[in-house]
Write a structure and sequence with these properties.
With 647 residues, the protein is of the alpha/beta class. It folds into three domains: 68-235, Substrate Binding Domain Of Dnak, Chain:A, Domain 2, CATH 1.20.1270; 247-391, Rossmann fold (3-Layer(aba) Sandwich), CATH 3.40.50; 404-626, Rossmann fold (3-Layer(aba) Sandwich). Helix content is 48%, strand content 11%. The chain is built from 25 helices and 16 strands. Strands 6-5-4-7-8-9 form a six-stranded parallel β-sheet. Strands 13-12-11-14-15-16 form a six-stranded parallel β-sheet, sandwiched between helices. Strands 1-2 form a two-stranded antiparallel ribbon. Helix 8 (186-196) packs antiparallel against helix 9 and helix 10 (264-274) crosses helix 15 (374-389). The radius of gyration is 24 Å and the shape is globular. The protein starts with a helix and ends with a helix. The structure holds Broken Fe4S4 cluster.
Length: 647
């Protein structure tokens, strides 16, 4: 393909590109076509204050940073409020997800949720330990009930820190205390931030942004971390498993059901339903060879990590999957499901089903998920899909898919590196100290049709492993690297020599799939463990590590950024314009200002090459500060020296 032809591409993923062209040929509107027609509103730069109707006020012109709105609010206050509200909304989404899992777990423990059970008793005991809940003499259900109650208490807690604050490095906890940002009850932080950014309340940009960090921390060390832990208890802590990824997993001969959204409770039950021999027989009676369950976005990541359900793609695949003509039902729960899928589905036989009591889409069928009787609703969805199979027209499924290995929980990484009896991150720390691994980068987040689909994610991942940086991935970024074939053991051949050597010795791939977007909390857990393991400083901000979101599109990544920065990490975004570009003051506050206070910072850059450059520079800066930037001298011990050591 010539460079000229490449310019017309909207995705680096050939399966996605084929479906984009199919949509264009059929005249079907998708996010990829609408983005060309819709110019982004300039208010996205943080300059518009629409929270009262004396305006809305938008500060424009060359001297806009000197202007004020009708109430007198200046650009910094307006931009900070906008960013803070992004963070509050993101924290509410991830944390409400965590609350829902806790509610299902509580009902399960009390025998009020048919068909569920707490699958991972080891993790249940581990989490009970984090929560200082005594375990002796308690049945599994009794313990699960107490853990779920403690989790739920974290949402409405009015005073005192969140339970999991104690899991952060000591020094970090002290810093939060000193700066007054130790997160309290999750709901309290979100509500307080909405209150503060209400007109006429908090009108000091720095003060607003500190509250935003606190709210982010309440999700990272609260709602999100609880979502991950309780999902692990309920559905199993992930361990590596093989699967396949991309639109090619949709099977023309089978009934195809796609799960989409974020909450695993419904999808886990769907896995049970599609494997029910009676359902499979029913599908065969309608002429299908069986039932194929696949996924989009983070519900997909949840059931991939624990059940090996193959992802059909990431965020920008949601409309493209329907365009294959072979999706009998797409069932969606919460977050990241675009209203446009209903219109796309009208061109095919596909039924869109909403399942969450919190989310309906006009024109979609609604089969409400009741966690007390989950099988009723999942069976209805599967039956609807089977009955719809015969209504299919022509199908066009790109024959493109990649193998992948997913399922790297914090627990498994420790086991992989240290074995059953010495499970630990020590080999990771040692290899960072000796320079074989230069540092760690977490590539997380979304797709955005304003950027070339998957290009940022894949190019950053490739470049970093080449430079001996270990990469962990979550969310739609994980699907992007998986589709590019970068999530197999063979990927180590693309890594730099020293990273490859570590991968060969430990069996660890250079790119590790950690799960969905709430599972970014696993990154916090790993970073805290790295500190505790020793040799890389006494707080997260000293570790040569960077968080990267190359294709951000919505509010949630900013909440993730807030808790990562508040925990001491350097975070770089790209894919869309900075939501605070209008204010130099706020742009500086969230970068150098936050770095001074928290040791972490947030920068929004234009392209993936800049991300790679800044990541590598930052890693070297941190290595230098730790005194591990030069090759460690290797000392060969003779027998006498060894004997002295063992004294
Ligand atoms: S689904 S928030 S597009 S990662 Fe978690 Fe993907 Fe971003 Fe949604």
């Amino acid at each position: 393909m010539s460079e000229e032809e490449k310019k017309d591409l909207k995705s680096i993923d050939p399966a996605a590109q084929a479906m984009i062209e199919e949509a264009e040929a059929k005249g079907i509107s998708t996010m990829f076509s609408r983005v060309d027609k819709m110019k982004p509103c300039p208010m996205g730069d943080g300059s518009c204050c629409k929270w009262c109707h004396m305006g809305p006020c938008r500060l424009v012109g060359k001297d806009r940073e000197e202007k004020v709105g009708i109430c007198g609010a200046n650009m910094a206050t307006i931009a900070a409020r906008n960013l803070a509200r992004h963070i509050a909304a993101g924290a509410s989404a991830h944390s409400d997800h965590g609350r829902d899992i806790a509610i299902v777990m509580l009902a399960t423990a009390r025998g009020e949720a048919e068909g569920y059970e707490s699958k991972d008793e080891v993790k249940l005991h581990q989490v009970a330990g984090y929560m200082s809940i005594a375990t002796e003499g308690k049945t599994k259900d009794k313990l699960a009930e107490e853990v779920a109650e403690e989790a739920l208490d974290n949402f409405g807690r009015q005073f005192g820190p969140l339970t999991y604050v104690a899991r952060a490095p000591k020094k970090r906890q002290e810093l939060w205390e000193k700066l007054g940002v130790t997160p309290r009850g999750i709901d309290r932080e979100v509500v307080e931030l909405m209150h503060r950014t209400n007109p006429g309340t908090d009108q000091d940009a720095e003060h607003i942004l500190d509250a935003a960090i606190r709210t982010g921390l309440s999700s990272g060390w609260g709602g999100s971390m609880l979502a991950t832990d309780l999902s692990d208890i309920m559905f199993g802590t992930p361990r590596p498993l093989r699967s396949e990824i991309n639109l090619g997993v949709i099977d023309k001969d089978k009934v195809n059901i796609i799960v989409h959204g974020h909450d695993p409770s419904f999808a886990e039950m769907l896995v049970v339903a599609v494997n029910d021999p009676e359902m499979v027989e029913y599908a065969k009676s309608k002429g299908a060879e069986g039932i194929q369950l696949s996924g989009i976005c983070c519900t997909s990541n949840e059931v991939l990590m624990r059940q090996g359900v193959p992802p059909a793609g990431n965020f920008l695949h949601q409309e493209l999957a329907i365009i294959t003509g072979a999706v009998d039902v797409m069932v969606v729960d919460v977050q990241c499901t675009m209203q446009g899928i209903v219109e796309v589905a009208k061109n095919f036989h596909t039924k869109i089903i909403t399942s969450s009591p919190k989310a309906k889409i006009e024109g979609a069928e609604h089969v409400e998920f009741d966690h007390h009787h989950p099988l009723e609703s999942v069976n209805k969805v599967v039956k609807t899909a089977i009955d719809n199979f015969g209504n299919r027209g022509e199908t066009k499924i790109p024959n493109i898919k990649s193998e992948l290995v997913a399922g790297f929980s914090h627990e498994y990484i420790r086991y992989m590196l240290g074995g059953k009896y010495r499970a630990s991150l020590k080999p990771l720390n040692e290899n960072i100290i000796n320079g074989k691994i230069q540092g760690v980068a977490a590539i997380v987040g979304c797709n955005n049709p304003r950027a070339m689909h998957d290009a940022g994610i894949v190019n950053v991942a490739r470049e970093l492993i080449k430079k001996n940086v270990l990469v962990v991935v979550t969310g739609c970024a994980a699907a992007g690297t998986g589709k590019a074939g970068l999530m197999t053991p063979e990927t180590m051949n693309e890594a730099g020599d020293s990273l490859k050597e570590v991968c060969e010795a430990t069996g660890m791939p250079p790119i590790l799939h950690l799960g969905s977007c709430v599972d970014n909390s696993r990154i916090l857990t790993i970073l805290s463990d790295v500190v505790e393991t020793g040799g890389l400083g006494d707080d997260i901000d000293q570790i040569p590590a960077v968080g990267i979101c190359p294709e951000w599109y919505c509010e949630k990544p900013f909440e993730i950024a807030a808790y990562c920065v508040g925990s001491g990490a350097y975070v770089i975004f790209s894919g869309a314009k900075s939501p605070v570009a209008a204010s130099t003051v706020v742009t500086n506050m969230i970068s150098s200002g936050w770095e001074e206070k928290y040791g972490g910072k947030l920068e929004i850059v234009d392209d993936w090459e800049e991300i790679v450059k800044r990541t590598l520079d930052h890693i070297q800066k941190k290595r230098k500060a730790l005194g591990i930037d030069t090759d460690q001298e290797r000392v060969l011990f003779d027998m006498e020296a060894r004997r002295e050591l063992s004294v």
